[in-house]
Amino acid sequence: MEGGVPEADMSAFRECLSLSWKNPYVLRLAFSAGIGGLLFGYDTGVISGALLYIRDDFKAVDAKTWLQEAIVSMALAGAIIGASVGGWMNDRFGRKKSIIVADTLFFIGSVIMAAAPNPSILIVGRVFVGLGVGMASMASPLYISEASPTRVRGALVSLNSFLITGGQFLSYLINLAFTKAPGTWRWMLGVAAAPAIIQVVLMFSLPESPRWLFRKGREDEGKAILKKIYPPNEVEAEIQALKDSVSLEIQEAETSDVSIVKMLKTTSVRRGLYAGMGLQIFQQFVGINTVMYYSPTIVQLAGFASNQTAMLLSLITSGLNAFGSILSIYFIDKTGRKKLALFSLCGVVLSLALLTATFYETETHSPMISAIETSHFNSTCPAFTTAVDSREWDCMTCLKASPQCGFCASGFNKLLPGACLISNDASKNECKKDDRAWYTKGCPSKTGWLAIVGMGLYIIFFSPGMGTVPWVVNSEIYPLRYRGVCGGMASTTVWVSNLIVSQSFLSLTQAIGTAWTFMLFGCVAVVAIFFVIIFVPETKGVPMEEVEKMLDERAVQLKFWKKRSVAQSQKI
């Protein structure tokens, strides 16, 4: 291991699979810690379906877009704090204790949400859940990375990403299971307490990260764990490399004060943060969590009116997300992190272009409003009644005119002229009584199915690459002495970016339209391609103790289109 970089190819994937019988202990560590990813994914997915029913129970939520965004985004605000504190906790108390604290916070939040009598208490529960998710989002991949053999480190950290997407898929299944149950959304949000309890029990039986133990001078404990992780012919070299790395860090710490300023002046740390934090920012700003948090709403925007239909179609996208993360386990150590991210982003750009075109067509060719159809009901929307140009109104004009307007489609054909009515339960029931479809978020469209195709393609391209690569890179790119702090900074960056995107998505769709919103995400994805080419190094197969040296020697390649010399290539 020492002095050489193992070839990470297809055999790395096979070796990862062989751990199930050769060294199940390593898989036990990875899966137990990875439940933190499951919690992260479950919360991401469950709120998208629960929000449909929270709007039905709390009319204030249905009437106010900002309140819907607050219910989603306050968990992200909590995650920002959790990730910030989590970096310090990981370095001070260890990865294991940090994960247990995260589970406890998640459990408390789940109970509060399930029992919430009003939107305010629900938001408090979301903050607690966010604190737990923020801590777990950095502690889980860090623990897995530090407790994994180098050859399969990428694949095992990818398990965390798989469990994130698996949690999202599970959340949609549970959402569907409780659609007919009393207290629908309360069950959806409360079930999340179960995996938190399971992880607490499992973590009490697992050791601390061996690299953290070495850093704290508990070498005997660390050696005992490494002997369980690595085969006999590799363990001594790994122990020696880790001892050398820790000794160098302690020596540096004794000769100078370790501070944020000192950290940022360190070339390897600074370049690592460029790559790590940049990847996390672009991961969010290409719009992934708007698709996951609001996928049922996006399906409704595409013209599918039913809550159940919206969640069923969203379940398909969630399943594709889980499938994509399985692909990443195979490809992450075969093709490398950088190539996988670039392929992923190119596909994301194409998918967002399709979504932009589809929603533009939907918004500009919606069914017209018929005064005759509207006169059949006693609840005409006031905005339509007072409009000077009501003959030119279509479905989209009706919905955008006022939050109090809804569209009742024609009973013969949804694409024929319909009625613009007051958006309330009475109008909804009166409309559905005649076997008509009721729309408040989007309009009927003959091309709406293309939006589902676009979402599916987006997930398939995003999940194996940009869904996984940022987490893998951030778990392995920072020097050990700064790993907790830098990991916390990167996780905080994720949640701040996530908060900005999620808090603004519905408002953006109202202000500039769904089509232009997706076009904006597409432009960000194009910028992300150039960022990865220029700033992100390849860490495939590089031992964690040698990553720092690689970053010290690597120069940022601004003229990426020029062919590198042999010497430059060897440095990278």
From TrEMBL:
The chain crosses the membrane at residues 29-54, 66-88, 100-117, 123-144, 156-178, 184-206, 272-292, 312-333, 340-360, 448-473, 485-506, 512-536. This is Major facilitator superfamily (MFS) profile domain-containing protein. The lineage of its organism: Eukaryota, Viridiplantae, Streptophyta, Embryophyta, Tracheophyta. It is found in: Membrane. It comes from the Eukaryota. It is a multi-pass membrane protein. GO terms for molecular function: myo-inositol:proton symporter activity. InterPro entries: MFS_dom (IPR020846), MFS_sugar_transport-like (IPR005828), MFS_trans_sf (IPR036259), Myo-inositol_Transporter (IPR050814), Sugar/inositol_transpt (IPR003663), Sugar_transporter_CS (IPR005829). It comes from Clitoria ternatea (Butterfly pea).
